[in-house]
Amino acid sequence: MGTVAFPEHLVMIGCDNMAGSILARWLESGLDPARVMVVDPGIPLVKAGVTVHAELPEALPAGAVILLGIKPQLLGTVAPKLAPLLSGDKIIVSMLAGVTIDTLRDALGHGSDFIRIMPNTPVALGQGVCALYADKQTQERARAQVDALMQPLGLVEWMTDEAQFNLITALTGCGPAFVFRFIDALGAAAAELGLESTQAARLALATVQGAASLASASDRTPAALADAVASPGGMTREGLNVMDEGGRLYSLMLDVLRAAEARGEALARGAK
Fold this sequence. Notes:
Elements: E1 10-13, H1 17-28, E2 36-39, E3 51-53, E4 65-68, H2 75-82, E5 91-94, H3 101-108, E6 113-119, E7 128-134, H4 140-150, E8 154-158, H5 165-173, H6 175-192, H7 197-217, H8 222-228, H9 235-244, H10 248-271
Parallel strand pairs: 1-2, 1-4, 2-3, 4-5, 5-6, 7-8
Antiparallel strand pairs: 6-7
Helix pairs in contact: 5-10, 6-7
């Protein structure tokens, strides 16, 4: 990855676990701490040189990129204080799950550029996924600037239909937690069958890590890779048959994604 064109001024409103991980990754990638202002009543621990405020200051830097990292339910509290500080030269980047750009414009005014993003936890390693969406009112220069800003985080994927953003959030934003739960279950099942628990957990994690790396490097689909190592009558095929019987695994993941997507829609209704 080449040199990242970081904005002259970056304001982060809310700096919890996800926003903090993103900031740490940007700083590791060359962002000057002096360009960063964090506004968070919790006064998070950040790298020396970053300006930290418990409350919004009286003014924000001209041309700033403003990252909203608060919980969606807090939009109604933050918006009346933030809206008077915004102008047409600001870019608002929202991580608020389930909150549409129309809702953001209604709450914060229509003068700025607005872009929604949904990162996931592996962005801390630069191996995450960051889905983005911008409406037609957002200028191309804002899209390009935010696209460049997200590159150090991992895969950057633009969406063309905001209606699918909750589904994308369920898949990529929530997805790491689902994978973590699978890793845990794989190890726990092996322990139940007789392996020592810490050894089983270690082997399960290494197995999933290696399989994911192999799938990422391969030009074959994950389904094809599974079939390639499943000889008829063999152990792998027997295990896959259990997972595939009656669409068992597919049905489970369909229910999981539906539940997460529905929760995103509920959060959106609560933020209005």
